[in-house]
Amino acid sequence: MQWKNSRERFGALAKLFHWTSAAAFIGAYIVVYYVIWFLDEEAPGTLAVLNVHWMLGLLVGALVLPRLAWRLCDVQPHDPPGSALEHRLAHAAHWGLYGLLIVLPLTGYAGTSLHTDFGLFAVPSFRDTALFDAMASLFGFDWESFEPPVDAVHHFLGKWVAWGVVGLHVLAALYHHRVRKDDVLTRMLPHGRRRDN
């Protein structure tokens, strides 16, 4: 098993970061839309389901910094054939994805007033941290004035931005695989699978 990237393929660690982040991100969406579409917000069991959304969101947030560090330290596979503009747009889209993977968990955590229970341990809500107390004291706000705008940013990004950015990422990978027939998708697949024509 090759842990590090090469100029031809992503290594096992980059793939692990990518697919774990993707699974947690998609899982968080599935859970929150299950709550929105099928559960009563006031029902006793709803908080337990929302807790799964918070857990997955915190997992995404916890993975993004080591993932970025590994990306910056390791070699990146070559760009596929294409124009300089296409390469710039692809790199901008990737950094946009990284931005979402930072901002969505950050605003989700900062705008949630309840702790996240992982079973063996719990992550306190941002409202209950010394950092929030210090910020509130320094800038003169309380939770009631802090939470609504943070929550609004989280919901706006989640409802209107993330779908488009992630959708473009998936469509671009499929376009490279099916139309361009290059290795953009297959070099990120687990187990070194090859493109099927």
UniProtKB/TrEMBL annotation:
Primary site of residence: membrane
At the top level of its lineage, which domain of life is listed? Bacteria
One Gene Ontology molecular-function label = metal ion binding
Location in or out of the cell: Cell membrane
Q: How is the protein disposed in the membrane? A: Multi-pass membrane protein
GO BP terms: respiratory electron transport chain
Q: Is Cell membrane there in the keyword field?
A: yes
Q: Per the database record, which ranges form the Cytochrome b561 bacterial/Ni-hydrogenase domain?
A: 9-190
Xref: InterPro entries: Cyt_b561_bac/Ni-Hgenase (IPR011577), Cytochrome_b561_oxidase (IPR052168), Di-haem_cyt_TM (IPR016174)
- UniProt cofactor(s): heme b
The record, for Pfam families, names: Ni_hydr_CYTB (PF01292)
Q: Quick one: a GO cellular component term?
A: plasma membrane
Keywords from UniProt, A to Z, are: Cell membrane, Electron transport, Heme, Iron, Membrane, Metal-binding, Transmembrane, Transmembrane helix, Transport
Q: Which SUPFAM superfamilies match?
A: Transmembrane di-heme cytochromes
The residues that cross the membrane are 12-36, 48-68, 89-110, 160-177
Family note: Belongs to the cytochrome b561 family.
This protein is called Cytochrome b561
Species this chain originates from: Janthinobacterium psychrotolerans
